[in-house]
Amino acid sequence: MLFLLLSVQLLSILPCSFSASLSVAPAYSTKQTCLSESSASDSISAQLNTPITGGQFTFYGIGGRGACGLDIDTPTKSAAGSGTLFNSNAAWVESCLPDARYLLNDLVCINRCVKIEYKGNTLTVPINNKCSECAKDHVDLSEEAFNWLEPGGGSLSPIFGNTDTNKWISMFLARGGRWKRLRMIANPAFSVANLKKCMCLLIDDSVKNAINFLEKARNKGESFNIHRHFVEMSFDVIARVALGQRESRQFYTEMAQLAIESM
């Protein structure tokens, strides 16, 4: 997947409104999630409705759940905001969505949108993920949102990529958004977004199995060593994600047992 970096004429973080050239509503309302703005952690209010000139937007792969706990492909046009807009002390709370998933109780994740004015067009999309390495004036869009603003996908040299002002820039010297773009060009298969697509299901399955074992141990009404359960789950996740083990093998994997005994 190619990773492009383009200049933005105006970028603003603001409460969601829908009067621009194209406005995309958040996937859920606060009534659906049961999150409350009044009780949410807040590091974004100072930035609301404050235009930023000369910002940048990029795009990233789609799929899985983002830093807010929301599906990053719902809606298909969405944004990952700068990590500086997130509150590091925000808590995860159980939502009242049908799957009772936990959501990050951070104001940036509660019906906050980014509005981008670019080449005479205006796009407003909800923030449902975090771009940890992005500066405040850099927004990472879903590919569909990016393509709405830049239908041609931008121009990119197949050899050098988007070299900005220095055609000899290397991935070893680049920083921030430029490094991320060059990293994606050099090895798109192992981008964070693509790895999340294949890892999430494996990790979720291992965690669910670990919870089942914990519940069985609890139901016996006796004390038990929880450390071993976490060790089993950790080995299981590593074996499945890094070593190609297909199924969960907690508590009956010979190699894991040998490793535990050696500790």
UniProtKB/TrEMBL annotation:
InterPro entries: Cyt_P450 (IPR001128), Cyt_P450_sf (IPR036396), Expansin_CellWall (IPR051477), RlpA-like_sf (IPR036908). Keywords: Monooxygenase, Oxidoreductase, Signal. GO terms for molecular function: monooxygenase activity. The keyword Oxidoreductase applies. Residues 1-19 form the signal peptide. SUPFAM superfamilies: Barwin-like endoglucanases, Cytochrome P450. The keyword Signal applies. Belongs to the cytochrome P450 family. This is Uncharacterized protein. It comes from Heterodera schachtii.
